Amino acid sequence: MSIHVRNFAVVQLPVKNLEVSIKWYRDVLGIPFTFEFSPGDNEAWLNVGGVGLGLIRCPEVPRLDFTDMAGQAQPIISLQVDQIHEVYEELKSKGIEVSEMTYKRGGGYSFRFRDPDGHLNHLWGGWPSAEDEERNT
């Protein structure tokens, strides 16, 4: 028998303040609960396109990003959104510090920001259209 990994099942994030993180991921980013959260629980489970996102209360929370060979901070998590330009403006209007919107030929639009625990997150607008590619040549 050979092993066949089908998909990611769960991604777990360590968080300091579970209630603040729930508000961030559920209310700001619109990620729904997998099942109901009860106050006093030490974890909350959200659903990102069928993959579980576990927010796990921890006494110590390491920052989840790393530096690549070019010296650039890289996120562990990248989430795909529709209407990335509108999402970008909405987050900025809520006072969330976001990076500059970037465009990578063949890769599309994206930007970065940090969550309440300092984890670097990346939002990606999906594969570029032919019009996007032409506009960004």
TrEMBL record:
Any matching Pfam family: Glyoxalase
Xref: CDD domains: VOC (cd06587)
PROSITE patterns: VOC
Domain VOC residue range list: 7-126
PANTHER family linked: BLR2520 PROTEIN (PTHR36503)
Annotated protein name in UniProt: VOC family protein
Source species of the chain: Brevibacillus antibioticus
